[in-house]
TrEMBL record:
Transmembrane segments: 74-95, 115-134, 154-171
SUPFAM superfamilies: a domain/subunit of cytochrome bc1 complex (Ubiquinol-cytochrome c reductase) (SSF81648)
UniProt GO molecular function: electron transfer activity; oxidoreductase activity
Keyword Transmembrane helix tagged: yes
Keywords (A to Z) from UniProt: Membrane, Transmembrane, Transmembrane helix
Name assigned to this protein: Unannotated protein
A cellular component term, taken from the record's GO annotations: membrane
Amino acid sequence: MAKAGGFFFIVFGVTAFLGAVASINPIWLYGPYTPGQISAGSQPDWYMGWLDGLVRMSPPLETHAFGYTISWNILIPGLIVPGILFTGMALYPFIESWMTGDKREHHLLDRPRNAPNRTALGVMSLTFMLIALINGGNDIIATTFHLTINQIMWFSRISIFILPPLAFVITKRLCLSLQRADRDLVLHGRETGRLVMMPHGEFVEVHEPISPEKAWLLTQHEQTPALALEENDLRGVRRPGVLKNKLRARLSKAHAVSVPKVTAEDLKEIEHH
């Protein structure tokens, strides 16, 4: 409690000091806000750029009902899409726990390659936000690269649906390839670049075994198997919530896809060769 209180007062003191001596966004130097005097080169802050890009790429959709106008081109990109993204970020740990059945606390980070679905989801989200961020500066990009606003607009509208899923697939395949490379490194060792000719004339490259510490680092991660959820119980009666269990089993199977890590039996088998 005392340590937390000390940290609080340190942060409070630094914040108060910055508020006294630092200037952030001195609007009194810019004059009154007049929308008609804003140039085409005005850009949002970097953390709002992706939202501005979503608003810019939205088609002009409006609904007039009961004397009110609902601007879907503002409501969807400015409220609904960010709500889905941030809600998904907050719920993902619970969703993954539900998929895998792992309810334990975890305090150590996983290597990105050993959590391919999690890494792929992160890259997919970053790709989505990067496309939206690029479209947030479409006027500057258009004048700099001699393009039209429509070209950048349609590129953003199409790529924001195509590139994020493509990034997910590519990232997951890369993670699995890196897992396979780790497995080969543990089994066969490190390449030395030295060639040896066998008595029968074959040339082979000599591999050097890696250290036990390195081998432990490459094999210490856990691999959670897919959940086995049967539709019927031991008496042959159909379990309640079959559709939910089917969905959970499919998600668990997709999440459990990985390259099997090296076991002691694999090392013993490779020693005999």
